[in-house]
Amino acid sequence: xxxxxxxxxxxxxxxxxxxxxxxxxxxxxxxxxxxxxxxxxxxxxxxxxxxxxxxxxxxxxxxxxxxxxxxxxxxxxxxxxxxxxxxxxxxxxxxxxxxxxxxxxxxxxxxxxxxxxxxxxxxxxxxxxxxxxxxxxxxxxxxxxxxxxxxxxxxxxxxxxxxxxxxxxxxxxxxxxxxxxxxxxxxxxxxxxxxxxxxxxxxxxxxxxxxxxxxxxxxxxxxxxxxxxxxxxxxxxxxxxxxxxxxxxxxxxxxxxxxxxxxxxxxxxxxxxxxxxxxxxxxxxxxxxxxxxxxxxxxxxxxxxxxxxxxxx
Length: 313
Ligand code: BMA
Known about the structure:
By secondary structure, the protein is mostly beta strands. It has a single domain (9-310), classed as 5 Propeller (Tachylectin-2, Chain A). It has helices at residues 82-87, 256-259, 298-307, and strands spanning 9-10, 30-37, 40-48, 54-61, 68-69, 90-99, 102-111, 114-122, 128-133, 139-144, 153-159, 168-173, 180-186, 197-200, 205-207, 210-221, 224-234, 242-246, 267-274, 279-286, 290-297, 309-310. The strands form five sheets. Strands 14, 15, 16, 17, 18 and 22 form a six-stranded antiparallel beta sheet that branches. Strand 7 and strand 8 (114-122) form a beta hairpin. The relative contact order is 0.16. The model has no long low-confidence stretch (mean pLDDT 97). Beta-D-mannopyranose is lined by residues 31, 92-93, 227, 263, 266, 268, 285, 288.
């Protein structure tokens, strides 16, 4: 049976978080890492400050839809360490990667040297330790699989290139700090909704049929770029092997706060929460201005990858 659109059902009270909900001055609230920790939903969201640079805030929720923002920012650019040199222009688009009873946070660190990825760790979201900068410039959107494959961690990322449209790569590591054996595994398709570039979105999570990865794809129009979300299924034992990629997008900008805002026509995800009942809560920034939520049936997304797939490469 074919899975039917809409694959993501928008929460009826979107947007779920705006700058008015934040108790310190910010211009936007978007692109949030998400996790369910000890039964509570924790959201680590990006905000532009009024100087155009970004920091990360924290909000908590009992039900995954109504969030209360903490009075102070969660993470701001580092000072006084090696990280400070690379976070000078701000930190953005944090992902929460659950690995071995800990959470590894991957975020974009911007500076005069380009954009790199910072890795930090926390067990409780109270004390956080920065571990390392795990990429050179220019690479973004790092998500890490929750388990090791033949003794090595695996991540998806997106290097910049002037020769080829920006694509999704995989790399491996023995210790989460040193990464290698990189390979390109998924590329945009010409004259397709993700023709301009693609990049990892939410950290992949396990299903019976494979690792499900929600990614973003971009199409350039006369009115600017349109950011949409798509879905791919990776082999359970070999995450570098893609079993299927949905030919169709699963979400596109449609609500007024997705179509217009700081950057028009953007839905961008950094996090989703799979639930025990087989549903998924997914979170996205609308027009780089507000945060939205929706739900999906995980099996529908898996079926979409298996039955209506385009080539990965
Ligand atoms: C990407 C990133 C995201 C942003 C998106 C749309 O390149 O910078 O943080 O949401 O563009 O502006």
